[in-house]
Structure formats: C-alpha cells, structure tokens
Amino acid sequence: MELFVHKINGKKTSKKIKLDNSVFGVEPNTHAIYLDVKSYLANKRQGTHKTKQRADIKGSTRKIKKQKGTGTARAGSIKNPIFRGGGRIFGPTPRDYSQKVNKKVKRLARKSALSIKAKEKSIFIIEDFQMEKPSTKEFIKMLSALGLTGKKNLFVLEELNKNVYLSSRNLKNSNVVINSELNTYGIANANNLIISEGAVPKIESLLNR
C-alpha cells in the first residue's frame, strides 16, 4: 500500500511512502487485539482498594453479652460484621490485576490493529515537523487543515517533541506518542492515525523483529 505524504497545512505532496504489507496489510486477528487491549486496561488498574475486615477494626474484645439466656443469637465481639461499625465480610483487598501477553501475540495485535486502520483508510502520513514553542492554537489549526477536527486522533512521531506534546495536551481527542509507545489500545481507540514520515520505518522495524 502506498500513501501520499501530507504537509501540516493539509496539502498533499508529490511524495509517496510505501507501507510494509507485513505490518499494515496482514489478516486481522481480532482475538489477539482483544487479549492485548484487555491486558493493557488491566495493567492500568492500581489494585489498591481495601476495606476494613474484622481484624482491622478498632474496638474492645470483651464479650458484649452473656452466652445464653438473652433470647437472641450469641455474640462475642463488637467487631462482628453483623453489627454496625463492624468489619466487612469478604471485602476487597489489595491485589495485582496485571495480565501477561506473549510478545508474539502483542506484535500480531498491533499489526492487526494497524491493518484495520489501513483498510479503513484512516492512516495519514505527514512530513516530519517541529514546533518552536508550545501552541495549542497552532495545533488546532493543523488538525483543521488536515480535516481531523472533532475526531479522536493519535499522532505517532519519530522521536519525542516536547513542544508538540504540550500543544496537544489540552485537547481531549488528540494524543501524541513516539513510535516505541504505540500500543493496540491507542490504535483501536483512535478514529485516525497520523504518522510522521520518519516514524513509519521505525514502526515497521519494531514489529518485524
């Protein structure tokens, strides 16, 4: 597949870049995408939830009433979960939610997600560009020129550009990453994938190891 390279002012150049079919043209494996996205979302969970169980409650250990003769159920502690202020039964405790996905499955998932975007014609190639200073206004102007306003956009750059990142940070629907940070969830969650010209060979190199 060949795509024209665009300038940041939205104009199409005469240059074309050929996308490697082994990365952007594979038969999509939806199950691999599911596994990688599920792992990504699970790994983002902190797992620090905690409720106080019976052993964590402060209170006297004195038997609160005699064993027999009261006409009610026996009770030995004010920390009993059936009493108000007592511990919680089977409450959540800190745990690790992370899930492991094999490297080959991750690569297949990313290739599948990229291939779906390519098939949907949702990939745009732009010339490598720099921003002299952070400017959200200029970034919005670039999105408007490319016809991407109001859509979820993922920008993939060859290397970290602090000014571009800061310019996009206030925009809810735009995200900027470098080629090594590209993940299946980010690709699948975006409406459009805008890849800088220099990032394309690096993405293909990473996914063809």
Write the topology of this structure.
Elements: E1 2-6, E2 12-18, H1 21-24, H2 30-43, H3 103-119, E3 123-126, H4 136-146, E4 153-157, H5 162-168, E5 174-178, H6 184-189, E6 192-196, H7 199-207
Parallel strand pairs: 1-3, 3-6, 4-5, 4-6
Antiparallel strand pairs: 1-2
List keywords for this structure.
209 residues; alpha/beta; Ribosomal Protein L4, Chain: A; 6-stranded mixed β-sheet; 7 helices; 33% helix
Structure description:
With 209 residues, the protein is of the alpha/beta class. It folds into two domains: 2-45 and 100-207, Ribosomal protein L4/L1 (Ribosomal Protein L4, Chain: A, 3-Layer(aba) Sandwich), CATH 3.40.1370.10; 51-96, no CATH class. Helix content is 33%, strand content 15%. The protein contains seven helices and six strands; from the N terminus they run ββαααβαβαβαβα. It has helices at residues 21-24, 30-43, 103-119, 136-146, 162-168, 184-189, 199-207; strands at residues 2-6, 12-18, 123-126, 153-157, 174-178, 192-196. It has a six-stranded mixed sheet, covered by helices on one side. It is elongated. 23% of the residues are buried. The model has no long low-confidence stretch (mean pLDDT 91).
CATH C-level name of the largest domain: Alpha Beta
Question: Whole-number average pLDDT?
Answer: 91
Q: What is the name of the CATH topology of the largest domain? A: Ribosomal Protein L4, Chain: A
Low-confidence stretches: none
Helix content: 25-40%
H and E string: EEHHHEHEHEHEH
Distance between the termini: 21 Å
Q: Please give the count of helices.
A: 7
Total number of domains: 2
